[in-house]
Automatic annotation (TrEMBL):
Residues 113-552 form the UDENN domain. Gene3D superfamilies: 3.30.450.200, 3.40.50.11500, YVTN repeat-like/Quinoprotein amine dehydrogenase. GO terms for biological process: regulation of Rab protein signal transduction. GO terms for molecular function: guanyl-nucleotide exchange factor activity. The lineage of its organism: Eukaryota, Metazoa, Spiralia, Lophotrochozoa, Mollusca. GO terms for cellular component: cytoplasmic vesicle. Signal peptide: none annotated. Keywords: WD repeat. This is UDENN domain-containing protein. The keyword Thylakoid does not apply. The keyword Ribosomal protein does not apply. Pfam families: DENN, TPR_DENND3, uDENN. WD repeats lie at residues 1058-1099.
Length: 1276
């Protein structure tokens, strides 16, 4: 880890715009150093051929925020840099912004016209070998390596430096450096030309002097222009902003060339103290020599800022060629970009890197290679390199590289027969590149056919601007608009190409079903994906998806998912993971521009730089003022981050850490770990102790301080191979989940017990079991292929197919699905439904006699005997009996308990039972001698029905509408900690369905579409369990955990996080006008929020109140529930009274604590957590009126609906009381564990969620008078 002093430098900010300024070139101190060996020329020949030779251009100076080094003629440090505070303070601010030619704030460098260097004396000791640029003495304490200092001349002057008779135009180009760890550094270079006088003395030694007079001097003197280059090196790709800065600098230098280094030092000093904005909607503007410079933010924390005009690529290339380059990058080809303009090389290559985001290029990336580095183009492996078009003849000779010619706007692949084939065409030449899916390509092309990225076209009707600043702002805004549209179109392309990946992921076992994914795309698209899926660029993308990374790709995929769902041929019907059904084309491309919002920026103006201390203090004051006044939550987060940077620079480390730790979840990736560690190292022991005491900080500190710098990458499984070793329980659970055999923990462990030898499943047993399982799947698919599509329902699964057998309907095959038995006649393959499973009244093992022998068979009959038949199954009879019985009982339980997930689980049990029985026939398997016991142990629903556990009381049956499983697909069921129902609504783009939000005990929020009760594919992961919800308008849901997660109801993603609470948020309550919200945390802190701006209006600390469990607002008072009573406060936090229950006798000496409470129009009801007792107070007098004893272990939740109070108990029962009479109306039983949460769904339904042993949600009708009929059609 870097030392704290190296991270926190005096007079600089951590996120400074510029790290260092380098000056390179030829001046009076370097003399003329020919690139070619000196022995080839005499000094007279050099002088006579001055304009036809290449000269070395070494590093002249290096300037940072606190150091200035000069390398010529020898290394020395400027003792007057940085400027002294007194000197700067006495200077007028205006002088710092604009410099007249006669004034300079920096220390002047003495004119060195008397110091000259002869060529002979210089080069006698420094002979240039190969392309190596030598640095006389390495400079200490610079933020660049010695290697970069030695090599940067090659890139700043790729064509070497020359002398010119006439002054050439100043030119800008851009560089990208990549270190050994893959970290990139960005450089912007401007080359300008200074007037010099070249003369010879009597001994023919050549001298160089700066021409300041404009007079020619001696006739023998040569007046020429020699190049110098200023290079700004930054950690941030602000190419065009730094280009603007350098243009301003050179303009000042050319007006007063003698004061060049004074300008450069002041210039660098300003840029090193200028912070870059964090991702968000705040841009920074600062004044540089009277020129306003704007720094835009990036869109996302992990997305680089776009500071180049992306539309230039589409002015150079056709859309087809752009797609070819993108394909070449995604398939990891060797790419060489060629142009006669060095600046365009970097701009175009950087643009293509933006186009493929979130995919990141992971190979060699060199935008500019020099003449001596052309052999790099023959390197093995993928790369992206750029070179000058003068080397095109060399490039053409290198086979198998993709050549992107920027000058011609063409893309082709060099092939061995290229020079011999005169009939080649660009399309034929790129035939090696696979074609993208047509629909995705057509949407991409359609966007660019509508938009012509020509600024001149848009400006035809615009008056000519008369002010430079007006024109500059207009151009910048136009480029931002173009960049926003283009980046969105490219992101839409990436989403459309790879949205199908999400459906083939199993997060828990880190598996991607490659075969299944390829089955979802059409035949003509498969070559494209087959070439991309093995690449490392795709693997990195896959790793992000398996890590459930929430980024710009996932956000757009979620926003467009409803449209894609409607267009998908497969739909979203519930189906088994092992579904025996033909693969369907689920690859869908949709236009997402309906959700594109052009970003609007808020501008923060940096104050003028006088002294560092005053500048930093004024920045902190200005930012603090913005935080207090801003109505925009995202902007306040950006300001908080900026304030942390300035506080760190000022040495206020505790305050800086507080700002960084208070950043919401979406901004935590902005936390600079090295800066935080450096600040903690500099804290005193007392400050560290104070920091660790603050709630919420300790975990963050431990995570940052103990985090290994090298991230351990977990392996990704791409296939489903059988293990080559014995399996213990944990690995066995992973394998059966990976192979989609079982996702239920209890069933998986039962399967393990059925197959195990002592405490493991041996390799052979599992291989045979897996083989039998897959064989059954293959047989089912073969049968399915022989049926027409309309015979079975889209949500029906074939589970078993018999061999050729005899039945009462002739010879054929019998099939079992999760809904019915059917018969396929031999020969004609005619389909006949035998019986629906829930109609089977008698399933009996029998023996039927033929003229040869008795045959084992099954006889099946319905209730009234109208359907009765036998199937002659022989030795398979007992197995089929178990299979039919388990599926039949599963259907019976599903209908009786109105729980559709039971059908899914029973179907999985059937598949496992069949595989256990078949594998047990092999002698070497562990369960060979206990086949029946192993199979019967998996018959869960057969035992469930035999024990009559599926029979519910009549009251429960009349009220229960449906049961759903929010832990569906998870290995273990978890507690339903909180519930919320939100009604549907319509937007201009789509219809948002009603939803049921479930806060689960595994730190996830699972969401149901309440119109169909299908579980949404995506869920929200939080750092702690969500224990309370609140619906805030139509577009937001607030979820209380360790902080408040603000969820966008359209995308079902966390858009913001409020982190002001230091403990679990236990309750969120809205005012009647929906303008304000109160949130309470367990540490007795109440915060009042302004909902539109998310600003904290008031913070109340309730002294000596422990464990604040719940909060409600009534009669303009805050009613706060703690373990020992209900406390009443006014809205300013003044304590008014307490509702306690000390007068109640405690016969069993159990601690009496309040778990929940509810307010009725005249009363307040509260339930005790360890007693089945309800306390009722009069709301007006605050007197305890009565108590109600339920005979339960405890009360867990209360919900008032209409005139009924629904009481959830820890025995899994719901007691419904008439609120006015305090009398029991109904008692409902449908959970096998304690009820943990309840909520209302408008005035029609009540929803209850249970603890982990049950883990399900029940939907209850409030009327209880009308039966809902079929549970499968229940909607909210």
């Amino acid at each position: 880890m870097a030392s704290a002093s190296a991270i926190l430098k005096n007079g600089s900010v951590y996120n400074g715009l510029v790290d260092i300024m380098l000056v390179l070139g030829i001046d009076e101190n370097t003399g003329l150093r020919p690139v070619d060996e000196i022995e080839k020329f005499t000094t007279k020949e050099i002088f006579d051929n001055l304009y036809y030779q290449d000269f070395e251009a070494p590093v002249l100076a290096a300037i940072t925020g606190n150091k200035a080094y000069y390398f010529q003629p020898t290394l020395w440090e400027d003792p007057h840099y940085p400027p002294a505070p007194d000197d700067l303070h006495s200077a007028d601010v205006k002088h710092f912004q604009y410099r007249p030619r006669t004034q300079s704030l920096g220390s002047k460098i003495k004119k060195r016209s008397g110091i000259s260097r002869s060529v002979s004396s210089q080069l006698g000791h420094q002979r240039r070998l190969s392309n190596k640029r030598t640095l006389p003495i390495p400079a200490p304490d610079l933020p660049v390596s010695e290697e970069m200092l030695n090599s940067i001349t090659t890139f700043c002057f790729p064509d070497n430096a020359r002398a010119y008779r006439q002054k050439p135009e100043n030119v800008v180009h851009f560089l990208v450096f990549t270190d050994i760890s893959g970290k990139k550094t960005f450089a912007t270079c401007i080359t300008f030309y200074k007037p010099m006088i070249i003369w010879q003395d009597t001994e023919f030694n050549i001298h160089v002097d700066l021409d300041t007079s404009g007079n020619r001097g001696e006739k023998s003197d040569l007046v020429c222009y020699l190049p110098q280059c200023c290079v700004l090196i930054s950690q941030h790709p602000y190419y065009y902003s730094l280009k603007e800065c350098l243009s301003c600098l050179v303009d000042h230098i050319e007006r007063d060339v003698e004061e060049m280094y004074s300008f450069i030092k002041d210039f660098t000093y300003i840029l090193c103290l200028t912070p870059v904005p964090p991702s968000g909607n705040v841009q920074i503007e600062f004044m540089l020599f009277n020129l306003p410079i704007t720094l835009p933010p990036s869109e996302w924390p992990d997305k680089p800022v776009i500071n180049v005009p992306l539309h230039l690529v589409f002015l150079i290339f056709s859309v087809e060629d752009v797609l070819k380059v993108i394909t070449a990058m995604l398939t990891e080809e060797k790419l060489t970009f060629v142009s006669s303009n060095y600046a365009l090389l970097t701009v175009v290559m950087e643009s293509f890197l933006y186009f493929i985001l979130p995919f990141n290029w992971r190979y060699s990336y060199v935008p500019i290679i020099t003449d001596s580095s052309l052999d790099f183009l023959e390197a093995v492996g993928a790369f992206m390199m750029g070179c000058h078009s003068k080397h095109l003849s060399v490039v053409k000779q290198i086979n198998d590289i993709v050549v992107v010619n920027i000058d011609d706007g063409t893309v082709r692949i060099n092939q061995s027969d290229y020079n011999n084939d005169s009939n080649h065409t660009p399309d034929r030449n790129c035939s090696r590149l696979p074609s993208m899916p047509k629909h995705s390509v057509n949407l991409f092309k359609h966007h660019f056919s509508r938009n012509k990225y020509q600024r001149d076209l848009a400006d035809v009707s615009r008056p000519f601007p008369l002010k430079f600043e007006e024109e500059k702002n207009h151009n910048m805004k136009q480029i931002q608009i173009f960049n926003g549209e283009i980046s969105f179109a490219c992101l839409e392309l990436m989403v459309n190409l790879f949205r199908g990946v999400i459906g083939e992921l199993k997060i828990d076992v880190r598996h991607f079903n490659k075969v299944g994914f390829l089955e979802t795309v059409s035949e003509d698209c498969r070559p494209f994906y087959e070439k991309i899926l093995p690449t490392s660029i795709f693997r990195a993308f896959l790793e992000d998806r398996l890590n459930e990374k929430q980024d710009y790709w996932s956000e757009l995929e979620l926003k467009s998912r409803p449209v894609a769902k409607r267009m998908s041929l497969s739909g979203e019907r519930f189906q088994l993971p092992t579904r025996s059904r033909k693969p369907l084309n689920r690859h869908v491309s949709v236009s997402c521009f309906s959700v594109f919002n052009r970003q609007e920026f808020e501008t923060f103006y940096l104050p003028s730089l006088t002294t560092v201390n005053m500048y930093v203090r004024r920045c902190i004051e200005s930012i603090t003022s913005r935080i207090e006044c801003s109505q925009d939550y995202t902007a306040r987060c950006s300001y908080r981050y900026l304030r942390a940077m300035f506080r760190a620079a000022a040495g206020n480390y505790l305050q800086a850490l507080e700002d960084l730790f208070n950043l919401p979840t979406g901004f935590t990736c902005l936390q600079p770990k090295d800066l935080i560690r450096g600040m903690i190292d500099l804290l005193g022991e007392k400050d560290k102790e104070e920091l660790y005491k603050q709630k919420g900080y300790k975990q963050q500190l431990e995570r940052l301080l103990n985090e290994d710098e090298t991230v351990k990458r977990l392996p990704i499984k791409l296939d489903k191979q059988c293990p080559d070793h014995d399996l213990y329980l944990d690995e066995f659970l992973d394998i059966v989940s990976l192979h989609d055999m079982s996702t239920d923990y209890d069933i998986s462990t039962t399967l393990f017990d059925a197959l195990k030898t002592i405490n493991y499943v041996d390799q052979y047993t599992y291989e045979i079991f897996d083989l039998c399982y897959m064989e059954n799947q293959k047989n089912c698919l073969t049968c399915l292929a022989s049926l027409t599509d309309d015979i079975l329902g889209t949500d029906e699964n074939i589970l078993q197919i018999s061999p050729l057998i005899k039945t009462d309907y002739g010879t054929g095959r019998v099939g079992l699905t999760d809904k019915r038995l059917f018969f396929l006649k031999d020969g004609s393959n005619a389909f006949k439904e035998l019986i629906r499973l829930h109609r089977i009244a008698r399933l009996e093992k029998t023996q039927l006699h033929s003229f040869l022998k008795a045959v084992d068979a099954l006889t099946i009959q319905n209730e009234d005997g109208s359907i009765k038949f036998s199937i002659w199954l022989k030795e398979d009879r007992n197995c089929w009996f178990l299979l039919i019985q388990e599926m039949m009982c599963g259907r019976r339980v599903a209908i009786a308990t109105k729980d559709h997930s039971v059908t899914h689980q029973a179907a999985q049990n059937v598949l496992l039972i069949d595989a256990v029985v078949r594998s047990g026939l092999f002698e070497q398997t562990a369960h060979y001698n206990r086949i029946n016991d192993s199979a019967e142990s998996l018959c869960f629903y057969s035992r469930y029905v035999a024990e009559e556990r599926h029979i519910l009381p009549s009251n429960t049956l009349s009220a229960l509408q449906k049961r759903v499983d929010p832990s569906q697909g998870e290995r273990q069921r978890t507690t339903v900690e909180a519930l919320l129902y939100t009604p549907g609504f319509n937007t201009d783009e789509e219809e948002i369905p009603p939803r049921l939000w479930c806060g689960m005990g595994d730190k996830k929020i699972r969401i149901f579409d309440a119109s169909t009760f299908l579980l949404e594919a995506n869920h929200i992961t939080t750092k702690n369990n969500v224990i309370t919800f609140a619906s805030v308008g139509e577009e937001q849901v607030w979820a209380g955990a360790l902080g408040i997660y603000i969820i966008d109801t359209k995308t079902m993603t966390t858009s913001k996080t409020l982190t002001d609470h230091r403990d679990l948020v236990s309750s969120i309550y809205l005012t009647d006008d929906k303008r304000y919200a109160f949130s309470a945390s367990l540490d007795a802190v109440i915060i009042k929020w302004e909902i539109p701006s998310l600003k904290t209006l008031q913070v109340l600390h309730l002294e000596d109140k422990l464990c604040l469990r719940s909060l409600k607002l009534a009669d303009d008072k805050l009613w706060c529930s703690t373990w020992e009573g209900i406390h009443v406060f006014n809205e300013t936090g003044t304590w008014l009274t307490k509702l306690d229950f000390k007068s109640i006798p405690n016969k069993d000496n159990k601690t009496q604590e309040i778990e929940c409470f509810e307010i009725t129009p005249n009363e307040l009801w509260a339930g005790l957590r360890r007693k089945g007792m309800i306390l009722i107070w009069d709301r007006e007098s605050k007197e305890l009126k009565t108590t109600i004893r339920l005979g339960a272990r405890g009360i867990s939740t209360l919900v008032l609906s209409n005139d009924k109070m629904w009481v959830g108990t820890k025995q899994g029962e719901i007691h419904i009381y008439r609120a006015k009479e305090h009398k029991l109306w109904k008692k409902l039983t449908a959970h096998h564990d304690a009820i943990r949460s309840m909520c209302r769904a408008e005035d029609r339904y009540i929803l209850s969620g249970a603890c982990s042993k049950d883990g399900k949600v029940a939907i209850w009708s409030q009327t209880l008078s009308v039966d809902s009929g079929s549970y499968e059609n229940t909607q909210l």
